[in-house]
Amino acid sequence: MSQSTARPSGLRIWLLAARPRTLPAAVAPVLVGTALASQLANRFSLLAFIATLAGALLIQIGTNLANDYSDARRGTDTEDRLGPVRVTAGGLVPPKQVLVATYLTFGLAVAVGVYLVAISGWPLLIVGVVSIMAGVLYTGGPRPYGYAGLGEIFVFLFFGLVAVAGTYYVQTVEIAWESVELAVPVGLLASAILVVNNIRDIDTDRRANKNTLAVRLGRPATRRLFASMVVLSFPLALLPWISGSLGAGLALTLLAIPLAVPPLKAVATRTDGPALNKTLGDTGKLQLGFCILLSIGILL
Asked: Tens digit of pLDDT for each residue in 107-150?
């Protein structure tokens, strides 16, 4: 199935490259970590929140640009892929321009990181450097781990554990166990976004020797993995309430269950690109909605 011949122009091309459907994965953990800092430690800095959010978005966008560039160079993004057009492989932007945009985006992330290190200390420097390296090496470098079935682990770690606990640390300069525990459902839902992407591309990735987790497991097992990630997120969000460290407001996350139904049904039954492209966005909305409700519940 080939991509549409309609050629986007101007800002829309760069919006395609940024992959806005994946950006909730960057926003959601910052909301949760900030809410936890406000509730547990009575700490909230608006400027630190804005900087953390900006840094997370810039690293996500930089990772997407690096992925766009690297996949095109490796010949992974071909005309028969089912996802939205990639700007490098699709000839919409010269590879050098995408590479420059990648450098600029990560450069802005570094600039934001300098401020965060200044207010929170050197551990944030390590987190920032490792996060950028992980973004570049996802599909770049001599042995990209995204091609070895490790992408979901990366997302779980960096858009779950690191992002939630790191956001909490920025505000408080300490780590609370709740920031680690609640990072688990956040990370699972972030990883679920990548699972949708990879199950959609399973056939084209297999032909391109891109051994994602979906390629390694096969479609039936990957569908079960997706369902497990989504379903388990809801009870896991309630554990701090059960343990008594946070209140019953965490049960607000259950209101996001209706958002989970369409992605669960689509992943279980559909293989066509348009349906799974929509599911990719729906899973992002699920994660963002879940985390908004979780953040409100933390503050109650």
From this structure: 999 999 999 999 999 888 898 889 888 888 887 777 788 788 89
Q: Rounded distance, CA 103 to CA 124, Å?
A: 20
Dihedral sign (CA 88, 92, 96, 97): negative
Alpha carbon of 18 to those of 85, 126, 286: distances in Å? 12, 25, 20
Length of the chain: 300
Closest CA to 238 of 178, 162, 157: 178
Distance CA 155, CA 173 (A): 24
Structure tokens at 94: 């010269």
Residue spans of the domains in the chain: they are 11-299
- Is this structure's pTM higher than 0.70? yes
Report DSSP state, residue 284. Answer: H
CATH number of the structural domain 11-299: 1.10.600
